[in-house]
Structure formats: structure tokens, C-alpha cells
Amino acid sequence: MNKIMLITAFVLLLQGCAKYEPVIDTKGKSKFENSNAEEISDDLLHCKHLAEENSTMGGNIVYWLLSPMAQNQYAVIYKKCMEGRNHQVLN
């Protein structure tokens, strides 16, 4: 019984880690020629959808355990998608 409660608590804690909202610098243009601030809402929604579709709870756990920075798969996909759309992601 204690093992089941421990596993359930662990899974619930890991689900909380899957909620990732990138911090984006909308003013700076140091990395890119043009600012993409006007497209940020669409890009956030699209990248969030892609990250949800391409990450699983099991994949997040394994990725988190093996990642040197303790990141989950969802956050990495989300961040790469936003950077691929020429947004400066700070976190």
C-alpha cells in the first residue's frame, strides 16, 4: 500500500514538472535580423501543441532522469520549437 502511494505521489510530482512556459525576450533582436514579437501568440500555441503531441509521461520521466540539466522532453521540444521560429528563449 505504501509503495502505491509513493509511486502515485512521484507521478503527480513529475506531471507538475511537465508544465513549462518559456520566457521569451520580445524586444531584443541581437540574434535575429527581424523581430517576431507579432507572431508570438500563434507560435506559443503551435509549439505547445507540438510538444504535447510528441512527448509522453514515460518519455518525460526517462528524459528527466537521463538529462544532465534535469529537463523533461516536453520542455526541450517546446524550447527548440520556439527557437526554430526565431524567438529568443531565456528559460
Uncertain residue segments: none
| Protein structure class | mainly alpha
Rg for CA atoms: 16 Å
Could you tell me the strand content as a percent range? under 5%
- Give the ordered list of helices and strands: HEHHHE
What do you see in this structure?
With 91 residues, the chain is mainly alpha-helical. It has one domain. The chain is built from four helices and two strands; from the N terminus they run H-E-H-H-H-E. The chain has a two-stranded antiparallel ribbon. Helix 2 runs antiparallel to helix 4 (73-84). The chain is elongated and about 55 Å long. The mean pLDDT is 78.
What is the element layout, followed by pairings?
Blueprint: H1 2-17, E1 24-25, H2 40-53, H3 57-66, H4 73-84, E2 88-89
Antiparallel strand pairs: 1-2
Summary, kept brief:
With 91 residues, the chain is mostly helical.
What would the keywords be for this entry?
two-stranded antiparallel sheet; 4 helices; 57% helix; single chain; elongated; mainly alpha
